[in-house]
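ok posting inputs for the adenosine-5'-triphosphate job
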Amino acid sequence: MSSATVERHDAAPSDTPILALDGVGKSYGNVHALRGVSLKVRQGEVTCVLGDNGAGKSTLIKIISGLHEHTDGTMTLDGAECRFPSPRAAQASGIATVYQDLALAPLMSVWRNFFLGNELRKGPFRTLDIARMKQICDEELAKMGIIIPDLDRPVGGLSGGQRQCIAIARAIYFGARVIILDEPTAALGVKQSGVVLRYIVKARDAGLGVIFITHNPHHAHLVGNHFVILKLGRVVLDAHRDELTLEQLTTEMAGGEELAELSHELRGVDPGKVVAPAEVEHGQVEAPARPDEEEPSA
Amino acid sequence: MTATATEPGRAGAARDDRVASRSLAARLLSRPEVGSLIGAIVIFLLFMAVAVPFRNIANVGTILYGASTIGIMAVPVALLMIGGEFDLSAGVAATTSGLSASLIAWNLGLNVWVGVVLALVVSVAVGAFNGWLLFKTGLPSFLVTLGTFFILQGVNLGVTRLLTGNVATADISDMDGFGSAQKVFGSEFALGPVTVKITVIYWIVLTLVAAHVLLRTRAGNWIFAVGGDAAAARAVGVPVKATKIGLFMAVGFCAWLSGMHLLFQFNTVQSGEGVGKEFIFIIAAVIGGCLLTGGYGSVVGASIGALIFGMTQLGINYAGWNPDWFKTFLGVMLVLATVVNVYVKMKADRR
Ligand SMILES: Nc1ncnc2c1ncn2[C@@H]1O[C@H](COP(=O)(O)OP(=O)(O)OP(=O)(O)O)[C@@H](O)[C@H]1O
Ligand SMILES: [Mg+2]
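and the output
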C-alpha cells in the first residue's frame, strides 16, 4: 500500500486535480440538497468535508461515487467533463467509497461482502478464487486491528464497528486513485479510529486522493490538507490547512457563536451532581432551551 | 500525534476468545437446504411404510419424472427468489412457449425446429420483458408478473382460438423435425429396471449448473447481493438491473425447456395449461430454504422441494388415499418445512 512516499509537505498544490466539481447542485425533488458546490480533489492530498447534519456532505460524495447524478454544474475527471451513470463506472475510474450506511449485504458472508463487485476469479471457467479471497480479506481485516474469527459468518451478525471496519478495509484495498470515506470513524473505538487515520495518511503518501468526511475537528485537523465546510448545501469555507488552526476549524464547524454559547451554557451543568432516582412520564424530560433555532432541519 | 495505538498488522489482532469455533454439524445445519432434506427423508419413510407400490424400484422413474417437471422450473425460480424477485408468470410462460412452437410450425408449415427456436426467443423475451417492466415501473415483481400472468393466460387462449378455432393446438407429430425434437425433449431410456425420462436428466444438470453458478461464480455472488440489499449491491458496483433481468431471462429459458417437453410429450398443447403451477415452483423453492425476502436460499434445496412434491403426488396415489387431499397435504408441508427451516437455522446460528 505504501509505495513511493513523495515528500511534498505543503508543496505548491499546483498540479491539476484528478477530480474537480464546478458549481455542482443536486435536487431531490423540491429539496435542494447541494447548491453551487465547487471542490478540487488532488492526488496525494486529504480533502476534509465538514458540516452539520443534513448539510449535504453525503449527497456530495454520492455524486462523486456515481450513486446519484448531479442536476447542475459540471464534474471533471482528469480535466475532461464526466458523469458517472453508476457506481461501477466510478470504480472503474479508481474511485472507492465507504458510504455512511456502509453498503453491506447483511445475509452475505464477510469475505463475499469484501469482494462484492470486485470478485477474484481463476481458471478457464472464471470460477471464484475463494481461498485467495478469504486470505486477503483476513489479512486486510487484521491490518485494521479487528478480529473476525469466521469469515463465513453473515455480516448482519457483526457489531456496528466491525461492519464499518469491513467497509473501510474494502475501500482502502480497492481504491486505486481516490478513496472517499463518509464518517468512517463514527462507530469505531479509539484504537480502530487511530488505525483509520493512519490509513488515510498512508493512502495520501501512496499518492491517492482522499476525501474524508467527519464531525470530529480533531481528526480532520490531524490529517487534512484542505478543509471544505458545507452549510445548508453551500460551501461556506474552503481553506488550506496553513490558513487555519484547530481552534478556528472547530469554531468554523460549529458555526462560530454557537460553540461559545454552548460552552457558556454547559458551564452551569455541574457534572458531579447526582439526583435521587425517579420515574418519568413519557415525554416529560424537558428539552434543553435553545434560543437560536435557525436551521430548518427536517 | 502520540503513537500509542498498535501498529496496523497482525500484532494487534489477538484471537477473540469469546467466539468458539463452530462444529461441523452446526455448519451443516445452518445450510439453507437442511429443512427440505429432513422433510424429504420423512416423506420418503412415510410412503415407504404406508404405500406398497412406493417400494417398487420401477416406480422410481415415475416419481423422478413428476419431480423433474417441477424441478426444471423450481431451480430458476429459486435463483430469482434469492435475487429478491418473484415470477408468477412462470407456469403459463411454459404453456406460451409450447403453444408458440406448435402454432408457428403448424401455421407456417415450417420444420418443427424453427418453431422450437422461435419459441425460445419468445420465452426469453417474456422473461426480459418482466425484468424491464420491473425497473421501468418500479413496482414490486409480485405485481408486475401477476400482470404478465394474466396477459399471457389471455394471449394463450385468445391466439390459440384465433389460429386453430380450438382450445388446443393441432397434433404436429407428422411434421418435419418432430422425431428428432421429440428425442431431445420427450424421450426416455431404461436404466436397469427404471425408465428414466429425459427431463430428469435436464433437471439434474440444471440443478448442478445453477448450484455451481450460485456458489462458485461472480454471477452467483451478485444474485445473493441484489436479493439481500439491492441498494448496497449497486453502491459497490454490482450491475443490479442486468443481474435481475438475467434471472428473469433464465426463468424464461427454463419455461421454454418445460414448454418443449409439454409439446413433444403430448404432441399438442392445451392453451389453458399451466395456471397454478407458478405457486408450486415457489413452494418448492421455499421448502428448499429460499427466503421470501430474498438474499438467501439454495437451488439444491429447491430441487429437493421438487422431489418432495413428486414423492407426495405419487405416494398419495400409491397409498390409495383420496387425491383430493393432495393440495391440503402440500399446504401443510409448506408451513411445516418453513417452520423447520427457520427453527433449524436459528438453532444452528446460535451454536
Ligand atoms: N434520497 C433523498 N431524498 C430526499 N432528500 C434527501 C435524500 N437524501 C438526502 N436528502 C436531503 O438532503 C440534505 C442533505 O443530506 P445529506 O445526507 O447529504 O447530509 P449530510 O451532510 O451527509 O448529513 P449527516 O452529517 O447527518 O450525514 C438533507 O436535508 C436530506 O434531508
Ligand atoms: Mg452524511
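notes: The pocket of adenosine-5'-triphosphate (ligand 1) is lined by residues A 28, 31, 33, 51, 53-59, 100, 298 (CB under 6 Å). The longest strand of chain A covers residues 31-41.
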